[in-house]
Amino acid sequence: MAAKGIKPKTGDQAGKPGAKASKPGGKAGQPGTKPTRPQRQQVIPEAVANRMARRIAIATGIPTLLGMGVFVGSYLLVSRQILDIAPGVTLATSGGCFLLGLVGLSYGVLSASWEPQPGSLLGGEQIGLNISRLRESVRAMRQGRGG
Predict the structure, then answer these.
(1) Phi first, then psi: what are they for 17, rounded to 5°?
(2) How far apart are CA 68 and CA 63, in angstroms?
(3) Higher local confidence (pLDDT), 106 or 18
(4) How many Å apart are CA 132 and CA 51, to the nearest integer?
(5) Could you give the CA distance from residue 145 to residue 147 in angstroms, rounded to a whole number?
(6) The domain containing residue 129 runs over which residues?
């Protein structure tokens, strides 16, 4: 059922400008066809994805909870007149915690081992290796697109 004032396209409108042509099986470059591109799938193994998710949850979650806790703690200290804290100090401290959580997001991804073995607890040795993998991937994408 067509909406009021909108007419469905008929066969005679197919050749007019703005009408979409849908020819199945046309040659490349013709309207209605999609260029074929080799499909390259690089899927992150499930064990690695779970490892990244755990590291992200810890490295982002703890600073974020601390950032929220700063507001609550500051409110309690000021409202009960235990300590006089300037609002700027509360804002700067919680902002620092949230910024640390943002850094934790990158850390969680870059410190995860791509090997079947989990690697070390903190993953510091994996960061350099994963950054070089990331650079190679970006370089390959640029060469594929530009060259």
Answers:
(1) -60, 140
(2) 9
(3) 106
(4) 19
(5) 6
(6) 46-146
Taking only the tens place, the pLDDT of each residue in 41-79 is: 567 788 888 999 999 999 999 999 999 999 999 999 999
Residue 61: inside a domain: yes
The residue written with tokens 């064990």 in the block is 47
SS (H, E, C) the chain: CCCCCCCCCCHHHCCCCCCCCCCCCCCCCCCCCCCCCCCCCCCCCHHHHHHHHHHHHHHHHHHHHHHHHHHHHHHHHHHCCCCCCCHHHHHHHHHHHHHHHHHHHHHHHHCCCCCCCCCCCCCHHHHHHHHHHHHHHHHHHHHHHHC
Assigned token pair, 50: 């779970």
Examine residue 112 and state whether it is found in any structural domain, yes or no. Answer: yes
